[in-house]
Design brief:
Chain lengths: ~500, ~500, ~500, ~500
């Protein structure tokens, strides 16, 4: 079986990828089934592997698998292996570490204080350094996942309570994390001090639910209560008691703005705003900032659709499906050798020739990463007879890597990392190319603009301003410098 | 592996289903790879099984599998098992007969005249009677597929040439068929006298290509030449010679109008018209025939989108994604017992609450079959705060079964087969419900209206006027009548 | 899963192979479970594939699989798929035809007279000619098995009753067959006029049982009644009525003498004699005919053990396990390149060095086919320090192919087909080599000697005297002669 | 797939089971292939799981699987995953810990000092206590195997060199172990101070080989050098340097005497003696100690065969295969309900009726554990017509559990743990029953008799005299005593 991400194969995909989704529920008689359904709604956040751990008051049970949630948790048998009123789960794209089954979360350990399971969305940017220290003291790691560092820090903490141990551990950790933790005492959900990765909270009857996005609450019929705040630890006991802690005091929040641009589902609420409306707003900003004399607005489906609707409404141009997306993308295909050049992209996207033939079109996509797909889409429009192709992008140029749990190519492979606007336009062979401005993006999410002194979001992929130190990266560059090797800026 | 149709699980699907897609190519060095890619583009026509047969000048090779094309034909090894310059394939929903591997097409037999492989889209409505006659003469059937009847009729035909044998066989056959046939002499493509099921023809360099839809030509970069005409047999030799025959003379064509409504992909050209434009036109007709005082037009994605764009453009109401569709539908899930009633449909569709809250919405879907999904969608809109929900359907009421290769529920399960308009509206709990008229539908596909004396399309699912006799059905009703059993009208 | 025959891999095996075992039971409430157990006891007759068909009074059910009985029929689920009081099954080595699942027996067809299932041990030596005739009349074959010819002959027979149709069919057939047939009316067991392949009959309470060997009766606790006689058709109805027919009149029997030598299990009764005793007797004849001045008698385990016990008892030499056989032979292994030459054979057989060191040994094996294993075993004994190695074979030289359902190499690969005794001894590098005489073999099975005019057994593999015409072989040689190709004598 | 031990299913097996075999090779270009072949020859020591770890000078590679060696390591691909000149492997029956893949050895860890892999035959009898201490200091265990304790003790040792760390770790360990250890510096093999479990050493060209038994050397063509002595640590570097250490000084050896009785293959050399000869000797001792007036000696195959040959030779009674063993035991079968009672045992063993009918037989088996199989075998002989059945056992009564890596039932299930001789005879329904004496057993292995003051072997299963403390067992009994629960003597 082919377990690879169907969206990453061939040229059909050229996106940044959120690397994980987490879900937890406590106090529900069918916790594992709810968890499976919730993770299914988060499938877009990670398609490579999935795991669920449950607790029935006495034992922890774990089931992991490669592939999609539906490939692994659709049967009654699979759910019956996970008894109990508490369950937590994880979908995974790839993140730090290889792809073996032992890296599939939730990770679990029997500590002296009892069982401990954790599901983690994010990335710890000093994990290598912490691991070296732990191994030198005799710790044995079973995975290559950065998340296991957290478990070892908890296991070796001298503090008495689990909350104190966890706080002690997380104080040593730098980077981004949204955690769902299970112990025999209950569930805890934690978000890093800047809240880089999302985490929300809901209710389903007496049960308390945590999830990366509100759509996971919707699918199980839970009510969205509020987000877990940046730097907040929420503890939930089996009797339903909820306690909130802020062990790191108050620091300014910097949630990931790319959740609005692409990562979250449009029907989610992120940072108190509708993602769909944010995307439509970006399209409207783009129409105002970068208008275009054309006949049609055509989205690159599906991620470009909300911005294209916004662009069309603001510009008054008709919105048309000039590109049709297949529901059956599947994996890399053997290509017939003498077929047209673009069979790869055509498996996913096909021109709606009758619509675009002879027309001047505004193509709307959410972002440009390597630019390879954009080039092929522009070419496909021209092959279908489009007279002019104007490319409008619903985010600023993506010129910097992300170290907070997002799969980004090396800077040298990012189109905006190696070219200016004119060169990018030339590369994708569009008649014109324009991006929304960084301030336009901030306006679209309801702010007056970007606060340069203290940005309201993490926007490092656009600006290169990272909100945390990047210890492992710095160490690697030091080592490479000593070895006189060329240092790659953003790998 | 997922052997079941992901779209048919649970309540997330309530559609008529086209039951097959066929593809053939002759004269290409990598025929099997082109065939796999072409079938992939036809995946929406059948998700249950797939098969490809190739011929290398000496031997026929066949590979079959359950599930999607990408599950079975993505590897170089799978394609390498299918050498030769001629290949034909089939994707299958279910059609007549059980689901065993032996029913997966292309069917193949060693006849006295040599190898014979056939892929069939359609349904033979006197297959049972023909099979009884053949078995009584000593024929042994290896599948329960109606298509095997054709092979036995060819095998026992006394005519000398393959073309004559095939014509002889098809003269005995009643119903719908679009066939791709392979013999050691070359490829033949045949369409039944009324052309009920689609079949088109294209060119890729020196190779000749046949496919159920033009999108399968697009994906391999082939040029669309023309459709195979109703009643036409096209023979292609290995030297590229093409011969056209019309063994049944001229009969009026009756292609399936539901290809415009739902079956074909919007980017296909069917019966010389853009399917996307037909659907937009239906939406416009609907806006004219059944206007509505509302705030938003919301499509039931994805099949309702083109009609919704048409409705929005004609009515001037804004088009908004009030429902978000998941890309990861997967199979039936174990449901948490105390979750909201509608988790099933929510896995596929989720309300975009911020958009529909407090609004009067026009919901656009392509058709209503059982009505169960429609009810849940309406309820989902109300749960998300919609003030009014007006349901508009881009086809007339579907009140009759199809016997030409489409999976239809029994008439007693078709909403329009058991209720009038008022009852249907009550059933789905919409504030209003309206369907496009049958004449509106004919206008949308470019005609002045339906010609009652000689309808230009097969529209039996709407009108109950079947263009062929239905021998097996009549025989079954006779038998049931003799046994004094109640006869189900349309099962 | 192990699809290959573990005994055929590498050099560890150099035997003739019985190609099938059949089993049938009628009148038992758990027919399929008894059938699985019976086939398991016949596993040595065919390890490549297994199938069981059952009948519950209304429907036939079939389950097939590659590999061993235990791999496919150990679970309650697998047996539950096969309801009913009648079941028949088959284990298969390879026989005529490729290895696809469609060749796995029982074969089944829906005839005009109802369902018809057949399991066949043997080989039809005019199958190709019969198939050509059937195909030219329009028959379509689904397998490449010779057994399917019988089904088509039954299907096209003009006789009224099933017994008459089957007799009609078998009259056209030449070669060897032991058949278990199931129809909605009951079970029939047939053995070819000379009874080349074995078939016995037993009782388990009210149920009637048929099997290739008596061990299959033992394992289910059934009582051995008698053998099915050569040329006999036994019919058993669901009410327990048994009818015996002899449609071909009386012909002299010629059962396969190799069943005594190697094919049957030693605890079976074949042709009214204990196979174990026959083998011990052969060893005793060999000791008398070919005595040897040595220290020890060492069997090549396991098949050489009974003859070695006989040889030791008759000669007074001690019987010792000088070779130890592994229970875990498994499949071909990747060999370390610089290991000793004989790792292949050592996986199966290992010298018991302490026993053979410095000794003069008599090695006893049941037969020599290609001689490759014999050579390695002799070498292994010498490497372990044996002073002299005298090879004694408990059958005459095997110089001719078998066309009656036994897998034999081409004559040019049979050691005795290409060498005389002195050359054979030289080839296997033994100090002496001797075979039992053909008359000694006949004496060991209780006869005065071989009746040259009318041999009491089929011994064609030793004598080249085939008891039936070999039509397909003759046709092939004719064709090859016309093409001036060299003709292989016995392929 | 069924991964359970085919020999333990149903009643067909009633044996003590050696729980592991180990193999290691260093200095061979195709180390992993040799390792697979060696483990295959040790398959009888563990059928449940298998693993191999190799090292190519830079990286360690591991491949594990459930089932047999041949199921997991027969392909070139599987071996190609394990490059390098050093490889070590393990076959596993079950031993301490559950059956998950994470318990399959070799276990591996990245320590601060580099990679560390270990394969272990034996059992650590204070593993629970050591694990508690390690976990309380923050160690995280990934398996439930007692072997992991050794790794954590090495990881946390303060000594500088790997040899010192390992010695430090093993000083804390109590029980039985034969270890093959791999580090980036080379291979080490260690045997516990009393040498309870076996370990031998050999040469294959320049390569050094370690294995549980000499048959694993034979199969790869290696020369048997000597055994690893009790308490010896042998280090082998990549340059071929071999160093021997005895960190525990000299203690009297106590190797497991049951290796002679049943565990080792008859063609192995254990404790400097031929196992086959030991078994024949036991049979001879038994014939002298417990003669019998009978007609035949019949072994319970295969393990009873050598002792039966000895008994026959000493007594002058003929040796005959009165029981035939199937090569295809497979797993538990669904039994037909009304079949004879003994179908289970009959799948493995079948009476050779013609041989035993009307005869007085001496049945020879190697040991009696629960007695359930013995009862069935005796009954099978009577059903086949034996006039008298005298049971002779080639070991003393097995009345005590083993805690050194052997799977033993609770004492209450051992026939000799709950009955005296007369009751045992009554239970198995033999006409007479006798066991070899403990001194007879010691004589058979070449000693004057058992030295009561200082026994030359571990014979605790016969005598209850355990050569080491049993800390975990004692702790468990203490706990159970405090809870006033009944304590099972030997569980």
């Amino acid at each position: 079986m082919n377990f690879t991400n169907p969206f990453l194969n061939g040229d059909g995909d050229d996106k940044l990828h959120e690397e994980c989704g987490v879900f937890g529920i406590i106090g529900a008689p069918d916790a594992a089934a709810a968890c499976a359904l919730g993770l299914h709604a988060l499938q877009h956040r990670g398609q490579e592997a999935v795991g669920i751990t449950s607790f029935d008051g006495a034992e922890f049970y774990t089931r992991r698998g490669l592939g999609h949630v539906a490939d692994n948790f659709s049967s009654a048998e699979s759910i019956a292996e996970l008894p109990g009123h508490m369950a937590g789960g994880h979908v995974r794209y790839s993140t730090t570490g290889g792809s073996g089954m032992r890296n599939v979360q939730p990770l679990y350990a029997d500590l002296a204080s009892g069982g401990f399971a954790v599901a983690h969305n994010g990335n710890i940017s000093n994990a290598m350094r912490l691991k070296q220290e732990l191994v030198s003291k005799g710790a044995i790691f079973q995975s290559t996942s950065d998340t296991e560092v957290i478990i070892h820090l908890v296991a070796t903490s001298r503090y008495p309570t689990m909350l104190d141990k966890l706080t002690d551990a997380l104080r040593m950790v730098e980077g981004a994390y949204a955690l769902v933790v299970m112990t025999p005492r209950g569930m805890a959900a934690c978000r890093d001090p800047m809240g880089i990765r999302p985490l929300v909270m809901g209710r389903l009857g007496d049960a308390v639910v945590f999830a990366s996005e509100t759509v996971a609450l919707d699918v199980i019929g839970a009510e969205f209560t509020r987000q877990v705040d940046p730097g907040e630890f929420v503890e939930v006991d089996f009797d339903g008691t909820i306690r909130s802690h802020r062990p790191f005091g108050d620091t300014p929040a910097r949630p990931c703005i790319f959740e609005h641009v692409y990562f979250s589902r449009p029907d989610s609420i992120f940072n108190k705003r509708s993602v769909y409306e944010s995307r439509k707003n970006i399209g409207m900003e783009l129409a105002r900032e970068m208008p275009c004399d054309a006949d049609l607005v055509v989205p690159v489906p599906d991620s470009g659709v909300p911005a294209a609707i916004g662009y069309a409404q603001e510009s008054g141009l008709p919105f048309e499906l000039g590109i049709i997306r297949s529901h059956y993308v599947g994996r890399t295909f053997i290509q017939p050798s003498d077929s047209a050049r673009h069979a790869g992209v055509k498996r996913k996207h096909n021109a709606n020739r009758k619509i675009v033939e002879g027309k001047r079109i505004v193509l709307i996509d959410d972002s440009i990463v390597r630019g390879t797909t954009s080039l092929k889409i522009v070419q496909m429009m021209r092959d279908a007879g489009a007279k002019e192709v104007h490319f409008r992008v619903a985010s600023p140029p993506t010129g910097h890597g992300c170290y907070y749990g997002v799969d980004t190519p090396e800077r040298s492979k990012l189109l905006a990392g190696r070219m200016d606007l004119a060169a990018m336009r030339e590369f994708i062979q569009a008649d014109s190319l324009a991006f929304v401005s960084i301030d336009g993006l901030y306006r679209a999410v309801g702010l007056a603009g970007r606060d340069k002194a203290c940005p309201q979001y993490c926007d490092a992929c656009f600006t290169g301003e990272y909100p945390t130190p990047l210890t492992d990266l710095a160490n690697r560059k030091d080592r490479e410098a000593q070895l006189s090797l060329p240092v790659n800026e953003d790998a």
